[in-house]
């Protein structure tokens, strides 16, 4: 695909990794567990959502995302189908071939097992190889140390810092902008060429 256009995403695909299936988001993924994630102080500490987060808000959010046909997947465990998180690329700048990536692993029992990294590597490959993005961007709160480490381990580098950009976990924190290009990055090249 040489020219990126929105209509290419009218039906986007499921992505399979060694341990995960990333399934296009659907209202069937709305559940008590998903609602609990959105009301969990630890999960949402560095996110923009506010607690309490109602079931109605969750329904409206998922319905809106599905109707907009954005690239938004539920991350599920291959062996038993458990929904453990979400990952998306939104918005996409079609002219400049740039997409904004974000991830939420809501199921805390499955933190630290490499699932976010596995899902993200697969998504990055999809963005660069299948839909021909040139650059993937993200925003993260500096104090979200685990997330920053995850992004660095994926090859993202810092492009800029918004100082004391918002109040998280009771204090004003810096927000970091990071990016990953489809070229020049040894880590990306490495796993694009050694994909499991
Ligand atoms: C941040 C988050 C996505 C990490 O998910 P995860 O599945 O636990 O992460 P992984 O197990 O794949 O670990 C990926 C990398 O993160 C880092 N990491 C994971 N757990 C860590 C910990 N406890 N301490 C420090 N670094 C850690 C490591 O660098 C790891 O890579 P490595 O093992 O190759 O070194 C998850 O904690 C989360 O969703 N948090 C709440 C929502 C959020 O903050 N999202 C990001 C918004 S910008």
Write the layout of secondary structure elements.
Elements: E1 15-16, E2 20-24, H1 32-37, H2 41-44, H3 55-68, E3 71-77, E4 83-93, E5 98-105, H4 115-130, E6 135-141, H5 145-153, E7 157-168, E8 171-181, H6 186-193
Parallel strand pairs: 5-6
Antiparallel strand pairs: 1-2, 2-3, 3-4, 4-5, 6-8, 7-8
The chain binds coenzyme A.
What does this protein look like?
By secondary structure, this protein is α+β, with helices and mostly antiparallel strands. It has one domain (6-193): Gcn5-related N-acetyltransferase (GNAT) (Aminopeptidase, 3-Layer(aba) Sandwich), CATH 3.40.630.30. Helix content is 29%, strand content 32%. The protein contains six helices and eight strands; from the N terminus they run E-E-H-H-H-E-E-E-H-E-H-E-E-H. It has an eight-stranded mixed sheet with strand order 1-2-3-4-5-6-8-7, covered by helices on one side. The radius of gyration is 16 Å and the shape is globular. The mean pLDDT is 92. Coenzyme A binds next to strand 5, helix 4 and helix 5. The site of coenzyme A has 20 residues, from strand 5, helix 4 and helix 5.
Short description:
The protein is built from six helices and eight strands.
What's the mean pLDDT score? 92
Which series of helices and strands comes N to C? EEHHHEEEHEHEEH
Measured between the Cα atoms of the first and last residue, the distance is 23 Å
- How much β-strand is present in the residues? 25-35%
What is the third-level CATH name, the topology? Aminopeptidase
Quaternary structure = single chain
Quickly give the CATH architecture: 3-Layer(aba) Sandwich
The structural class is alpha+beta
User: Total strand count, please?
Assistant: 8
Low-pLDDT sequence parts: none
Q: What is the topology, as strand order, of the major beta sheet?
A: 1-2-3-4-5-6-8-7
Globally, the shape reads: globular
Q: Which CATH class applies here?
A: Alpha Beta
């Amino acid at each position: 695909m040489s020219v990126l256009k929105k209509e290419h995403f009218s039906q986007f695909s499921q992505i399979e990794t060694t341990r995960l299936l990333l399934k296009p988001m659907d209202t069937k993924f709305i559940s008590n567990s998903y609602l609990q994630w959105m009301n969990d102080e630890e999960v949402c500490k560095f996110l923009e959502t506010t607690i309490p987060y109602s079931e109605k808000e969750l329904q409206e959010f998922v319905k809106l995302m599905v109707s907009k046909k954005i690239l938004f997947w539920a991350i599920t465990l291959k062996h038993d189908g458990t929904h453990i998180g979400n990952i998306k690329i939104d918005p996409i700048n079609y002219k400049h071939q740039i997409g904004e990536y974000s991830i939420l692993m809501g199921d805390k029992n499955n933190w630290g097992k490499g699932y976010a990294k596995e899902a993200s590597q697969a998504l990055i490959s999809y963005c660069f190889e299948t839909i021909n993005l040139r650059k993937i961007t993200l925003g993260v709160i500096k104090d979200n140390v685990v997330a920053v480490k995850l992004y660095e381990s994926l090859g993202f580098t810092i492009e800029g810092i918004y100082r004391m950009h918002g109040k998280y976990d009771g204090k004003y924190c810096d927000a970091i902008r990071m990016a990953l290009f489809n070229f020049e990055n040894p880590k990306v090249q490495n796993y694009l060429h050694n994909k499991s």
